[in-house]
Amino acid sequence: MTKPRTAFIGLGVMGYPMAGHLASAGYPVTVFNRTSSKAEQWVGAHGGALAPTPAEAAADADIIFSCVGNDADLAEVMQGEGGILDGAKSGAVIVDHTTASATIARELAAAAAERSLSFLDSPVSGGQAGAEAGALTVMAGGDAEAFARAEPAMRTYGKAVTLMGPAGSGQLTKMVNQVCIAGLLQGLSEALALAERAGLDTHRVVEVISKGAAQSWQMDNRALSMLDDRFDFGFAVNWMRKDLGIVLDEARSNGASLPVTALVDQFYARIQDQGGGRWDTSSLIRLLR
User: Fold this and answer.
1) Where is 20: in which H helix or E strand?
2) Where do runs of H (alpha helix) occur along 198-232?
3) Is 174 a catalytic residue?
4) Are 9 and 67 in contact (CB under 8 A)?
5) Quick one: pLDDT band at residue 1, thresholds 50, 70, 90?
6) Of the residues 89, 159, 174, 242, which is catalytic?
7) For the chain, how big is the Rg over CA atoms in Å?
8) Structural domain range at position 16
9) What pTM does this model have?
């Protein structure tokens, strides 16, 4: 069967490989990127077509994907002049992979519905490595029928693709995800710093405790690079601070108490002050050395 036509808006470190997986799986893809040279590079590598505006990229697409920076960027590509809502055809499904607020997700879902479009807020976890490997976790909010239509395409780059509930539920789930990561990384940083101060063989410590209840993805994938003081890779502190800002705004709105998250957010602010905005989020250990 012919696969649905797709568009992909935003070819950053996440969107570029995600769109590539769609193309490799046989989906016709038209891309748009604010820096047109990146779109030209993608088409040169993967085929497909490029468009000069999000509206033109979306015009013939059955499923329209977006992955941009923040709420403001998302509002621009969706509702700005030449935005997705200007060009999308009736009945199309919009799948947004931006990590943004639940508020804008609900607003865009309502705006899309007024135009006979479906909108799924579908942030991802797994970072650049997960995007490149096609092994992301996708957490979606929106209509079940629209999700069923878009799910096969999302599975080209997602190892786990789950509908979490109505509009906004994907973004709320991603907030929970980021709270877990922030707390884990601070705990891991303190643990490794303690091991160093105590004069232990830190690599042996990690080998032992990673076999027990202390094990985590962060320990398995970040402990050794933390011990080696290497942070020029991975999920940037700047991005995590953006995400935690969204989390803390939501907590203020719904009354959730997040004392550890608020504290770790301030620790990341100190990393930024040290010039580490592009360092991996595991760089929290730098504050303890």
Assistant:
1) helix 15-24
2) 202-209, 217-227
3) yes
4) yes
5) confident
6) 174
7) 20
8) 6-166
9) 0.96
